[in-house]
C-alpha cells in the first residue's frame, strides 16, 4: 500500500492505530464521536506557599514561651504541694485513728472490770455503805407447779 506524499496520512487510514498512540475505541468511518478532554497539569506549588501559618517568632514568641513554662511550673508546684499536704493530713488522721482505737480498748476493759462481781461488791460496800446479808436471812421463792391459764 503506497501513498503519495501529497496525500495526508489521516485521510488514508482512519481507523488504524499508530504504534505508541492511545487505543481507538471505535474503528471505521464513525471514529470518535467527541474528542477526549485533555487534562491540564496542575502547576506545582512550592512548599509553604499554600496556607499561611502564623509563626510567633522573635522576642514576643520567646516571652510567650517563657510565660507558658512559668505557668506550667507554678501549676506543677501547687499540685505537688497539695499532694504533700494531703499526705501529711492522712498521716495525722491515721495517728488519730490509732489513738482512738487504743482508747476504745481501754474503755472495753473498764466496762468488763466494772461488771465483775468482785468490783460491784467492793463499790457497794465503800460507796453506798451496804453490808452483805448472812446466808440464813436470804430465802428464795419456790417455783410454782400450777400453771395459770
What's the tally of helices?
A: 3
Q: What is the strand content?
A: under 5%
Average pLDDT reading: 79
What series of H and E elements makes up the topology? HHH
Form type: elongated
Low-confidence stretches: none
Largest sheet, if any? none
How would you sum up this structure, described in words?
This protein has 149 residues and is an all-alpha fold. Helix content is 49%, strand content 0%. The chain is built from three helices and no strands. It has helices at residues 9-12, 58-115, 117-127. The radius of gyration is 56 Å and the shape is elongated. The chain starts with 8 loop residues before the first helix and ends in a 22-residue tail after the last helix. The mean pLDDT is 79.
What distinguishing features does this structure have?
mainly alpha
Please write out the topology.
Elements: H1 9-12, H2 58-115, H3 117-127
Summarize the structure.
The chain has helices at residues 9-12, 58-115, 117-127.
